[in-house]
Model the fold of this input.
Amino acid sequence: MSNGDQLATILHVDMDAFYASVAEKDNPKLKGKAVVVGAGRRGVVSSANYEARKFGIRAAMPVYKAKALAPHAIFISPDMARYEEVSSQVMKIFEEVTPLVEPISLDEAFLDVTGSKRLLGSGRQIADLIRRRVEEQEGITCSVGIAHNKFIAKIASNHCKPNGVLEIDPEKVLDFLHPLAAKEIWGVGPKTNEQLMKMGLLTVGDIANTPRSTLIRVLGQASGSSLYELAWGRDYRDVETEQVEKSISASETFDLDLDSQEEILKEFLRLTERGVERMREKGFATNTISIKVRFADFKTISRSKTVDLPITGTQEIFEVVKNLYLSLNLDRVLIRLVGISLDSLVEDEDVKQLTLGERATGWRQADKAIDRIKGRFGPGSLRPARLVEDHQDE
Done:
């Protein structure tokens, strides 16, 4: 709630096919054609414009499948620096409307415009203002959901794409929400949806009319309680303007499937180095390290370990990564992708509680020296020995 008992007015603004739209903006010759952002023999689709989606192409689809569906489509490589540049300009437009902006990704954000209505008009008028400014200044379109909380606003924006506005009256939330498929609720992925279907729960209304205790028994305390609340349209989270990064990840899809343990561990080291450098740049330490392994048949498994104290060192984090991978006991199994994730991040205040028998100097100081050298001479100036040869090839 905002302003006493007044219901909040929350917007969820979502760019339409953002990466593809930026490509069209930069190259007007692409307009009207099927455009897919994603390239490479083993790549996946990052974005597809609405012309391409007519052929069944969707984000996260392997590029080779997308090419089979639409051989005539134009496939382009992602340009993350460009997307970040446009995203930054779009977020500035949002901040001109309200200081309460919570970016979710490069192409979407929540805005609390409750306090802006006195100057700028109703939620719908503000939504139209934002859409007009984004199109005029950045040459792309967006869709806006309007509701009294974040959950309903998010669903509303999904139901008015592309280039639309949908406002859900607080008095009619359940009329809108309950007929929807259960999978539209946050937290309902394929596995949870399968469990719900086994229970005969196909719609949001079905979930709402199931006892909370039953949902908790089947899905667990956190998931069961959350689904029950959301199924009744209840979401008490505020728009948070300060985003604390909770995870840093890095992954790599191989051009050819690998089955060599040495090569796979070398890639894990490369990813660890990349992720840990980003983490230290942002001033964080990690409590939980995770790995992801995807096999040639696309089956994916993950493992994680939570350490006793937050850590920042490349070598000590890689030791955890390596042990997690070796514990899988994969012998000559074809692997197409590996990834690492540094989770449960906390601020690294440069105060480290030493465990019994640990030296006060060592890898931590070495990592700081390495960071300084890379900052001065570039990211490739100093690397683990086993990666030097690969870097020369690059």
User: Anything to note?
Assistant: The chain has a mean pLDDT of 87. The two ends are 53 Å apart (CA to CA).
